[in-house]
Design a protein that fits this description.
The complex is a heterodimer of chains A (114) and B (113). Chain A is mostly beta strands and 114 residues long. Chain A is built from no helices and eleven strands. In chain A, a hairpin with a 6-residue loop joins strand 4 and strand 5. Chain B has 113 residues and is mostly beta strands. Helix content of chain B is 0%, strand content 57%. The relative contact order of chain B is 0.33. Classes of the chains: A mainly beta (114), B mainly beta (113). The interface between A and B is medium-sized, with 30 and 28 residues.
């Protein structure tokens, strides 16, 4: 089936540093998402992105967070600066259309902020 | 904000058993309900979705939706060890460019050989 690739699988950084999480979505998909999952808790919506713009963001999407997809390449989540509470697994997803469409997820990037 | 609750938290069954997973949601106007399967170290994978009241069958999977009681269930017939995974219930919200899924915490299913 369609694959979403996330790079890297694990990232360890010091608090205060910048980190960029990369996502290679399904090639013809138009809608992109980031979700955050803290160990033992449910996966929570961060942001969705369409046509080069953030469409909706949750209260978890702090001012230190930003997303972009320059030149139709990787869909990225940047955190600058990072905080201890940013430690989590971040999942990227994409879908062909908006409503009632299947979201395809990557395997996640585990971010550890020390 | 949609709330999604799943039960049980975990379940252990012998191979060949029928598995029943439950999910309740808070908004009767919510759109489709999705079930995802997640194996350790992998991303969630969509299994089946339902929009209308009633049931929907795909292979060994059957899902039942009752909007009046805000409840949906997933049944897995003839369970296999390879079915061992976390099962996530998700409710869709919004439309078009505002579309998103809200997930429950999941049910950890273990099928013993």
């Amino acid at each position: 089936g369609p694959k979403v690739l996330q790079i890297p699988s694990h990232q360890i950084i010091d608090m205060g540093q910048m980190v960029t999480l990369n996502c290679d979505p399904v090639s013809n998909h138009l809608y992109f998402y980031w979700y955050k999952q803290i160990l033992g808790q449910q996966m929570e919506f961060l942001v969705n992105f369409y046509n080069g713009k953030v469409m909706e963001k949750s209260k978890l999407f702090k001012d230190q967070f930003s997303v972009e997809r320059p030149d139709g390449s990787y869909f990225t989540l940047k955190i600058q600066p990072t905080a201890l509470e940013d430690s989590a697994v971040y999942f990227c997803a994409s879908s062909l259309e908006g409503s009632q469409n299947t979201l395809y997820f990557g395997a996640g990037t585990r971010l550890s902020v020390l | 904000q949609e709330k999604v609750q799943q039960s049980p938290e975990s379940l252990i069954v012998p191979e060949g058993a029928m598995v029943s997973l439950n999910c309740s949601f808070s908004d009767s106007a919510s759109q489709s309900i999705w079930w995802y399967q997640q194996h350790p170290g992998k991303g969630p994978k969509a299994l089946i979705s339902i929009f209308s009241n009633g049931n929907k069958k795909e292979g060994r999977l059957t899902v039942y939706l009752n909007r009046a009681s805000l409840h949906v269930s997933l049944h897995i017939k003839d369970s296999q060890p390879s079915d061992s995974a976390v099962y996530l219930c998700a409710v869709s919200e919004g439309g078009g460019s505002n579309y998103k899924l809200t997930f429950g915490k999941g049910t950890l299913l273990t099928v013993t050989p």
